[in-house]
Amino acid sequence: MASRPSYWPPPNTINPESKGLMIQGIFIGFTGFAAIVVGFRFWTRINITRSVGKDDWLILVAMINLLATTVTNCLVVKYYSLGMHIWDIVDNYGALGIKMDYSNQLLYHPILALTKVSILLLYHRISVNGSFRIWVNILIVFNIALTVSIFVADLFQCYPLAYLWDKTIPGGKCMNQQAFFVGSAVLNIISDCAVLILPVPMVWQMQTNTRKKVALIFLFSLGIFVCAVSVIRLRAVMNLADTSIKDPTFSAGFMWSGIECSVAIVCASIPSLAPFFALHFPKLLGSSLAGSRGKLYNYSGSSRRSDGYTLDSVKTDQLYPSTPDQTHVKTTVTRRENESEESIIPGAVKASAV
Q1: What count of Cα atoms within 13 Å lies in the side-chain half-sphere of residue 293?
Q2: Of the ranges 142-146, 199-203, 245-249, 308-312, which one carries the lowest mean pLDDT score?
Q3: Low-confidence winner among 12-21, 107-116, 135-144, 341-350 (lowest mean pLDDT)
Q4: Mind spelling out the 3-state secondary structure of the chain?
Q5: Is 284 exposed, middle or buried (0-12, 13-18, 19+ CB in 10 A)?
Q6: Are 297 and 276 in contact (CB under 8 A)?
Q7: Following CA atoms 46, 49, 52, 53 in sequence, which dihedral angle do they give, to the nearest 10 degrees?
Q8: pLDDT by residue (tens digit) across 151-173?
Q9: pTM to 2 decimal places
Q10: Residue 329 in contact with residue 354, Cβ under 8 Å?
Q11: Is-cis flag, bond preceding 160, omega within 30?
């Protein structure tokens, strides 16, 4: 390492204070929770809606990438000695830590893009509004173009690439990395907000009561948590250039990138769990979404139709225990624009007695 500043205390080589294990635990915990939610999402799709769509597969790819970045994040913590006081670090960072951090950078934006495109594909599938679908397609193209641009810039941030971890290479140079990281973070937040507010006008124009509209807007507005984490991460990125911070390695700001990816996958998957909760925990959702015994939720069909799901007829005893006065019902689907929340939540069915 470079010469030690005079104001640094002597290094503690016996029992140095470290938040490294805590940071690694946060990475693993958030990733594990995201994996559980994705597992429930696929269980719902396979066993309840009987329909796995493109949005689900994109989330699965994002989840696989998240598992990979969790490994590299934990290695970055180890080889960069993150969570330790900078004056207690006695070993060089080494090329391995920089390479792991470089891998994280290449995985980070694709994870978020896959998540947002997954949400947009869900919007496209559950809407029959032509103008709304046009805006969905515009945002899909924008997110893909933005991610490809950032990925290419990230990939070639230094020339030659080895100069990133070996500054002794003559003639090597890197772009303004701080400006790039801040700029890409700002563009990502703008993209997050666009995806967040896109369904609000469509839901508010639906011909249903205000309570149901608010419930649906809340369901599709969980991405606000992602936006909040993105802003916190942006602040952490800006702190990288703050020379007034005398102990940068002790900060846990690095962990917000991993948290953001996990939260994004979770928030993108929760709306797809509505059929699961409506079927097994109707009281949890309340009458706004789960309906009552006169309005049941049953799911089956094919993801081949872009405007909804094809549903098979069922009986109430397939959903609830039989009772002496129970009436058989048949399920019907109506896909009229702005009809009700059944047009928004995939697989929601309005039941009528026969």
Answers
A1: 10
A2: 308-312
A3: 341-350
A4: CCCCCCCCCCCCCCCCCECHHHHHHHHHHHHHHHHHHHHHHHHHHHHHHCCCCHHHHHHHHHHHHHHHHHHHHHHHHHHCCCCECHHHCCCCCHHHHHHHHHHHHHHHHHHHHHHHHHHHHHHHHHCCCHHHHHHHHHHHHHHHHHHHHHHHHHHCCEECHHHHCCCCCCCCEECCHHHHHHHHHHHHHHHHHHHHHCHHHHHHCCCCCHHHHHHHHHHHCCCHHHHHHHHHHHHHHHHCCCCCCCCHHHCCHHHHHHHHHHHHHHHHHHHHHHHHHHHHCHHHHCCCCCCCCCCCCCCCCCCCCCCCCCCCCCCHHHCCCCCCCCCCEEEECCCCCCCCHHHCCCCCCEEEEC
A5: exposed
A6: no
A7: -170
A8: 999 999 999 999 999 989 999 99
A9: 0.78
A10: yes
A11: yes
Range name among 27-36, 70-79, 336-345 with the lowest pLDDT average:
336-345
Query: Tokens 């007829």 belong to which residue?
Result: 313
Q: How far is CA 6 from CA 3, 9, 10, 87, 152, in A?
A: 9, 8, 10, 11, 41
Q: SS3 string of 195-253?
A: HHHCHHHHHHCCCCCHHHHHHHHHHHCCCHHHHHHHHHHHHHHHHCCCCCCCCHHHCCH
Q: What is the pLDDT of residues 93-114, one digit of tens each?
A: 668 888 988 999 999 999 999 9
Determine contact, residues 40/112, Cβ cutoff 8 Å. no
**Nearest one of 129, 124, 111, 147 to 54, comparing CA atoms:** 124
Report pLDDT digits (tens) over 246-283.
887 888 788 999 999 999 999 999 988 888 888 877 76
pLDDT interval class at 92 (50, 70, 90): low
Q: What's the token pair of residue 224? A: 């606000």
What is the residue type of 62? A
Compute the distance between CA of residue 177 and CA of residue 179 in angstroms, rounded to an integer.
5
Residue with structure tokens 């594909």?
Answer: 121
